[in-house]
Amino acid sequence: MRASLLLSTILLLACGAAGAEGSRDFGDLVIHYSLMPTTALTPEVARSHAITRSRNRQLLTVSVLEKTPDGLGKPIAARIEASATNLNGQLRTISLREVREGGAIYYLGELRLTGEDTFDFELRVDARGGEPRVIRFRRQLFPD
Q: 56, 76, 123, 141: most buried, per Cβ within 10 A?
């Protein structure tokens, strides 16, 4: 039940004003990512996944799907490195932890904010070897 509650929460919030989400198609893989304030999670969901609810924290979620003929995609494990650099050039490494629940595989990491800031994010995703897939995106983030 926890998996569906967390995934449902993330999907609902990522599609609404509370979150920022995206995906990138790499031919055989699709990588989904989202950012949301940790305060958007219920205390129960945050506690069950050891996420700190704070107005100064954002949750980064990443999942990797291998394309399948039915169009649903199959979750696969990956090695993911994540970082965020603010406009002053201050680099922050985001530690991601893998979560496996039911058939889902996703990666969670937290970014602490010290105030309103704009970050350039970089995700380096190594799934099945070869060259890592790189995703770069910019987000302006505010304490909740």
A: 123
For residue 48 the two structure tokens come to 């069950």
Distance CA 116, CA 2 (A): 31
pLDDT at 21: 85
> For 79-90, what is each residue's pLDDT tens digit?
999 999 999 999
Q: Rounded distance, CA 106 to CA 99, Å? A: 5
Give CA–CA dist 107/55, Å, rounded. 21
If you average pLDDT over every residue of the chain, what do you get? Answer: 89
Show the 3-state SS of the chain.
Answer: CHHHHHHHHHHHHHHCCCCEEEEEECCCEEEEEEEEEHHHCCHHHHHHCCCCCCCCEEEEEEEEEECCCCCCCEECCCEEEEEEEECCCCEEEECCEEEEECCEEEEEEEEECCCCEEEEEEEEEECCCCCCEEEEEEEEECCC
Whole-number Å distance between alpha carbons of 114 and 28: 38
